[in-house]
Amino acid sequence: MSQATSVIAADILRRFPRVGVVYGGQSAEREVALGSGRTVIRALTEAGYQVEEHDVTGRVALVSWLQSTELDLVFPVLHGRGGEDGTLQGLLEWFGIPYVGSGVLASALAMDKLRSKWVFGSAMIETPHFAVVRSANECTALENQLEYPVMIKPVHEGSSIGMSRVDDASSLAAACALAFQFDTEVMIEQFVMGKEYTVAVIGNQALPVIGLEPASVFYDYNAKYVSNDTQYALPSGLSKTKEAEVQALAVRAFQSLGCQGWGRVDLMMDVAGQPTVLEVNTIPGMTDHSLVPKASVAHGWSLPELMHQILATVPQVRA
What we know:
Number of domains: 3
CATH superfamily of the largest domain: ATP-grasp fold, B domain
Helix content: 25-40%
Strand content: 15-25%
Shape: globular
Distance between the termini: 32 Å
Number of strands: 13
Structural class: alpha+beta
CATH class of the largest domain: Alpha Beta
């Protein structure tokens, strides 16, 4: 641990000696959140914090736990709805409990792929062209108007749940039907031909860029959390100038939504070398397959050091 990190660690341990990790949850991403939560609990413990943990299986039990447990800070590790969309953040604000990460509005915006794209557009941040459909009929009406391939995404899901790549009009209806199982709003997004990259952001600092090369047609749930066939380029293979450009774009996207604390920004690089932002994740995965831990180690931070750095972003008084 560097001298600077040691100073940060000592200060944060004084501010937040008792940290509550809220993980698991009831969303479609529960299994991922359980794995992420276990990683965070282990890292916080190794960093010297007194950790209280709660696997969220119901709202009443969570409220009771928050009311009865003496905590200085909550570290939310709930992926998806109910934990990453501003709901939990609002509850913690109501109880006046400090917490790690983005606030209510930024969490809600980042979880909503449609509204976040509206913000990206207003901030002049490049993002793939898209359309939104809210019924099977609307999807069918677009079949012959699209430039394939396209990505089909539930607007309010993460971890690539309900997502499909569609290469021709004949497959569009089935892909939309799958996405509608998870959401009432479905995004049809232009597929960017090129390489995928991801950037972890801690505070206002971008960690090293990671290049992704999944064995499947896109970086889906299996590639993220199950398969060992995904290739990770770390270093990214980009020139220093291009890496800095991608990092700066990631921080701009993160800040445009009002995010704070920590997160991960996913991008594509088209064949012309133009980076374009896909989305911002305000509670990124922390499993053994996840990308933030890989970027942290490449940056020179162990996972316990990463915990100190993340907790150091919590403001003294949340606005």
